[in-house]
Specification:
alpha+beta, Glutaredoxin, Glutathione S-transferase Yfyf (Class Pi), Chain A, domain 2, 2 domains, four-stranded mixed sheet, 4 strands, binds glutathione
């Protein structure tokens, strides 16, 4: 059985959880106590030398970095989270990279400030909001052309945005999502999936 070493509140762990539930692969979550510093201990560093979660151990095959993990899981367990055609896959990769390059780091600032109680200064929050709004504009245009980021089917590209958006919906940035019709519909469509509800324990 797949062992997932992670933390249920971690955005990166949640991407893997959502993927596992989508592909219905049996797994066990091995809780890594981030608050207690378990990720900095030798046992965890042997699994992830940078001291982060998640990592997986699939019958001796170990892997870290959430993007690599979700691709592996989909491929290894016959998932349908990657478009079958070359251009579909390329589009999916583009949207995954947009998330990592322009969205995730910015989203983290209001999430830390409003959700996890780590205050960020005003210029940091303003710069982050501008980046989030810009990315949401780009997503809004894209989602006018199809229900999901890579086209007609829900894919790994959609999964990588869900954890940040889920937390952002508990911040004032919620308005930036709701005011964009295509993004708001996509968020409703994606976040209602059983896989996401299970990934968040709802
Ligand atoms: N690039 C890594 C990032 C993983 C990451 O930053 N995880 C956070 C939790 S959401 C973590 O382990 N933080 C612990 C720390 O920074 O000390 C991935 O995609 O897996």
């Amino acid at each position: 059985m797949i062992k997932l070493f992670g933390h249920p509140a971690s955005t990166y762990t949640r991407k893997v959880l959502c993927t596992l539930h989508e592909i219905e692969a049996p797994f066990e979550l091995r809780f890594v106590d981030l608050n207690g510093g378990e990720h900095t201990q030798a046992a965890h560093l042997a699994r992830q030398p940078f001291g982060r979660v998640p990592t997986i151990d699939d019958q001796g095959f170990t892997l870290y970095e959430s993007r690599a993990i979700i691709r592996y899981l989909n491929d290894q367990y016959g998932g349908r989270l990657v478009p079958p055609d070359v251009r579909g896959r390329a589009a999916m990769d583009q949207w995954i990279d947009v998330g990592y390059s322009y969205f995730s780091a910015a989203a983290l600032k209001p999430i830390l400030h409003h959700v996890f109680g780590f205050p960020q200064d005003e210029p940091t929050l303003e710069a982050a909001s501008a980046m989030i709004e810009q990315t949401l504009d780009v997503l809004e245009a894209r989602l006018g052309a199809g229900p999901f980021l890579a086209g007609e089917q829900f894919s790994l590209a959609d999964i990588v945005y869900l954890p940040d958006l889920d937390y952002l919906m508990a911040t004032p940035l919620q308005a930036a999502v709701s005011s964009r019709g295509n993004v708001a519909s996509w968020w409703a469509r994606s976040s209602e999936r059983p896989s996401w509800r299970k990934a968040t324990g709802r």
